[in-house]
């Protein structure tokens, strides 16, 4: 009676945990992935364009540092972060496509008249065979965009896309995620520099809107969400400014010279 050998089956059987593979197979896999990663990093350095595909963001507000992009203080800048064009280049080079499986839920909610306050989107990076190779997540508050749902969705999807790209390519050690959204916020200016989107004071800066209108919009149930959100933020800003002014006055009163 012959005894069948199972050695070959044990060696070739796929394992869920890479550490369960034979040392030889494991070494080969590490060498292959190491070479691939080295090739990827070389491509990133050669192909991505600074200040277009990636770059540093001035993260200090204009009220604290008026120099903006001409600022020389290194502490006022982020580490290098990946921008959307760079994420698109990497995805294209690796042959994957970003998809957003939860986006349609927000479309349904908006069409149904549901009031949204937060946007949380998931991004799946899908290869040519339809397999999900990586995922990422992005969140955005409508308050950040003065109730502009379209902008909030774009910002959340951009953040999720960049997050998924960094996870897929293992680039978190090189780039920071989500700061492309911060760049858009910085370019949009300080809250007091934004304009009223529509209504009686359309096109005016929020500080130019009378207190009476702000109070009316905040307490009016039928006021559009974009106007209500903008008025709430402007009221908070005015209160903060007033409190700072009072604090400075009290401090000055304590100084005897």
Task: Pick out its properties.
single chain; 257 residues; mainly alpha; three-stranded antiparallel β-sheet; 47% helix; elongated
Largest sheet: 3 strands, antiparallel
What is the string of SSEs from the N terminus onward? Answer: HHEEHEHEEHHHH
Q: How many domains in all?
A: 2
Radius of gyration: 26 Å
What portion of residues belong to β-strands? 5-15%
- Share of helix among residues? 40-55%
**Count of helices?**
8
Distance between the termini: 108 Å
Q: How would you describe the shape?
A: elongated
Regions with pLDDT < 50 over 5+ consecutive residues? Answer: 1-12, 178-191, 247-257
Question: Got a strand count?
Answer: 5
Overall average pLDDT:
78
Q: Find the structural class using helix and strand composition.
A: mainly alpha
Strand order of the largest sheet: 3-4-5
């Amino acid at each position: 009676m012959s005894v069948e050998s199972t050695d070959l089956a044990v060696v070739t059987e796929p394992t869920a945990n890479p550490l369960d593979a034979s040392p030889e197979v494991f070494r080969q896999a590490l060498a292959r992935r190491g070479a691939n990663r080295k090739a990827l990093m070389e491509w990133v350095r050669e192909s991505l364009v600074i200040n277009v595909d990636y770059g540093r963001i001035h993260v200090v507000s204009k009220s604290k540092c008026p120099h903006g992009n001409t600022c020389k203080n290194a502490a006022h800048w982020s580490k290098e972060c990946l921008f959307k064009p760079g994420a698109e280049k990497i995805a294209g080079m690796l042959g994957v496509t970003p998809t957003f499986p939860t986006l349609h839920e927000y479309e349904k909610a908006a069409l149904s008249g549901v009031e949204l306050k937060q946007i949380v989107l998931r991004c799946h990076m899908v290869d040519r065979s339809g397999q999900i190779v990586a995922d990422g997540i992005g969140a955005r508050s409508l308050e950040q965009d003065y109730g502009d749902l379209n902008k909030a969705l774009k910002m959340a999807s951009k953040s999720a896309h960049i997050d998924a790209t960094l996870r897929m390519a293992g680039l978190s050690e090189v780039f920071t995620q989500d700061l492309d959204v911060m760049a858009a916020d910085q370019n949009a200016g300080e809250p007091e520099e934004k304009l009223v989107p529509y209504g009686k004071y359309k096109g005016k800066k929020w500080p130019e809107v009378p207190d009476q209108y702000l109070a009316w919009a905040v307490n009016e149930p039928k006021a559009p969400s974009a106007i209500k959100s903008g008025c709430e933020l402007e009221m908070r800003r005015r209160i903060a400014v007033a409190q700072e002014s009072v604090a400075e006055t009290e401090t000055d009163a304590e100084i005897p010279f």
